[in-house]
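Write out structure tokens for Glycoside hydrolase family 1 protein.
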Amino acid sequence: MSTVKKGFPEGFLWGGATAANQLEGAYNEDGKGLSSADMVVYVPKEKRTGGHAIEITSEQIEKILSGELQDARFPKRYGIDFYHHYKEDIALFAEMGFKVFRLSINWARIFPNGDDAEPNEAGLQFYDNVFDELHKYGIEPLVTLAHYETPLGLTMKYNGWASREVIGCFTKYAETVFRRYKDKVKYWLTFNEINMMTISPFTGGGVVIDRVDNKLQTIYQALHHQFVASSLATKLCHEIIPDAKIGCMLARMESYAHTCNPEDVLKNQQENQRNLFFTDVHARGEYPTYMNRYFEENNIVIQKEAGDDEILKKYTVDYISFSYYMTLTISAEPGGDRAEGNLFGGVKNPYLKASDWGWQIDPTGLRITLNTMYDRYKKPLFIVENGLGAYDKVEDDGSIHDTYRIDYLRQHIAQMKEAIADGVDLIGYTSWGPIDLISMSTSEMSKRYGFIYVDQDDEGNGTLERSRKDSFFWYKNVIAANGEEL
């Protein structure tokens, strides 16, 4: 009798994923404070320099707060106005048959300054309303506690996660929402793409890097504070909601050696280790020994308090979630033909095509990733971001024929099915941006991921009217067939 699983398990969690700062809008309504995302200025493509990392200086913050940048646009403050359209949007998710919807709570909507004595009731009530609307349709919320939304008050007071003081602020926030939503939310995540801190400390942790002398030291110290906070939140979640599951979240960057040259293979192994370092701490409960040499060679000394190691070891995550958009190809040779679209670098892989934004498309890499991570951790896996950012054309009759998006998702879901047959315990899949929203890396609207089109352009113009793309009907059928029809 065969023991190979032939398809997606019963109860597989199909859905879509979003973030408050790219979706909600209403940045100054009902008592919400400013967050790090509210400080991100839109820069048109023709004026951009460098990569995707978002760094903001102390001087820029002062100019923004003083009103000096009168003509600047802040798209993440407005999103697609989910705050006022959530019923309409959730009804569309339900029409597709979503089993789960991933969203984040904007910390600054609950504690406007991050360290307020009491939470903001209007903010708490908003998420009550959203969760109630989801449950009306039988959709489970999957909630991220911190998705690039550090309250600006904590940046101004403590330089964000660079300070250990923020751990207490975060655990107070986590406890508040666990108690409030204990009967409404059973799936939680602590930090979105926690490794983002290494390429954009302001995005990942509200850290203004020009305030510090040693950038790498500050980044890894801030990460230690987030690791401890994540473990403490895991402890609180299990105590307050015993039947809940709480996980970590990684921007997974599976990488390949450019050639069979042992130098390429060694460098690739090191790149993979440094990416999996984050899930090693969350899932295994300790710092891996391979990081010791990296820390020493980069003059990094992690300042720990008594009990930190015990906290990490005792309160590990229930499952591991990750985003997957691309793979990297690693060469030990300097220079080379760089893959500029890839967030974490690497050289071009000649066997792969790329998206409109230069992200190399690798469906087989998802199967490799799933097998690698399940072999390593033997914990349930959850793909909580995957999708294709592309330009969409609205036809004269209003239709949008996004066959390229369907092809991308079809190929990746097929590889998920293969990984399940390989023996991987995969519990769910939430495609990124089921409805068009503001891009994290570029703050564009034209970089669209959704099954649902939103009438808004890069300059913020449009009616915000929602409409179904061809992929909407395709994904609806995928869910109805539990992945058996692609």
